[in-house]
Amino acid sequence: MNVTRRQTFMLGAGAVAFATLGSQATIAFASEESDKLIAEFSGGKEATAGKIKLKAPEIAENGNTVPISFTVDSPMTADNHVASVMLLALGNPGPAVGTFNFTPMSGEAAASTRIRLAKTQEVLAMAKMSDGSIFMDKKTVKVTIGGCGG
Amino acid sequence: MGINKRLTRLTLATIGAFALSSTIALADADDNELVIEGAKMTTMVEGAKDGPLDEVYSGWRFRSEETQALETDDFDNPAFSAVDRGKELWTTVTGSKGKSCSSCHDKAEDTMKGVRASMPKWDKDLGKPITLEQQINECRTDRLGAEKIKFDHADMLAMTSYIGLQSRGMPVNIDTSGPMTEWAEKGKKIYYTRVGQLDMSCANCHEDNYGKRIRADHLSQGQINGFPTYRLKWNGLGSVHRRFKGCMKNIRAKPFKVGSDEFVALELYVASRGQGLSVETPAVRN
Amino acid sequence: MAKSKPRVKVPKKAAKGDIITIKTLISHKMESGRRKDKKTGELIPRKIINHFKVEFNGAEVFSANLEPSVSANPYMQFKAKVTESGTFKFTWTDDDGSVYSTEKKIAVE
Fold it and tell me: C64–A66: do the CB atoms touch at under 8 Å?
């Protein structure tokens, strides 16, 4: 087949468009998964801001180990406590990070852990109270890529 | 040395290859103070009068606050799983002679104090300097009747981090006198020799441009007072020689071999550039 | 990495009603299942710690379901309210079915 320069260019453009569509599809897929996880966790209830505070670095020096922590404001009594907190890394290939289950014996609904972030993205923390109400907080973490490996 | 010439060449090389960011130029070492489990570490000393650096900084001072925090508490520091393992190995009998490290060296807390701070060190029998890993292997083969293990073997890293910890907080104190001088000179030559497709030497990054950013990374002076070091990138501990290898790959040079005379000489010279800094083993870096 | 080893930090004693901080870490690669073997190009199968549980005198205090986005050598810090002396039991469950556990005592006055 004879392919002119212009055709080559068109082919290239097509490939770019396809690649773009492809990556959008991946993003859509990941956010679909997040939506599903959120729906399952919240039981379809609307999340309200407040009560839960997520702490994450503004810039992570390495995406392999990003320290994050959260606290939820609650009396932690038998009839009024935090049941669980779900963490999602919305930009990771698999957004689920973990679900943390509390009891009145926890005394305080707070935890710290270290997570992997594949790229700059939003991290979401969602708390489910013993009465089923849902609260949420989000933080953007910039992940630096490049520099010296070794 | 023709400093101007070197700088010009460096500028050209770096603009072409790495584009060191001049907008964030001289985001120097920070002023944070490193206190590990209540003990204050020395992370800056004045350089020797005839030395290459006016101020000598630990790599800790170039890291983000989150990474820095990981080193200040021995529970938060993920290298301590290996330290625990090293403590176990210290008294575990291995090899054909039915002995453990403690058979000869008793308590590491007493006998290994200061060892990390002064390695590499002259070995009379071999007639050359040896690193901590090589010393451990010598003990394994000669006294325990065990096999040599690699520098980055999990058991070796457990031993080097446990032994190194016994010197934590002590100043790096490398002897470069007598027969060591020749080896330190050899290491110095390697340090300043441009190699690889990017035609760079250690000094181009770690002496001329520390404090600046190389893409997203904050360049340190390349001090080795915290090795073996837990690197977030590695998800684990690694030896100085592994780090050297990584640097050489970054400048697209063919790395020397772990444990080679070249790397031993380089380790000796680089360690001597950090005289007076506290040993931070096992440190945490990005 | 050799076999997984847990590390746990619990205060030795506390006053009745105190909320104490507990830190835990277990050495584990947390193989995500998304990495490829550099030599063969094949996906390395997922192998992570997928569950962590903390009990005090037999009752659950805290637990977590973990996913591959948790870093290698998983670290967990959390709280517990102590009203009596007793023993904390920590249990980590691996994808391969292995269970690692350790215990720590606390004296409550």
Answer: no
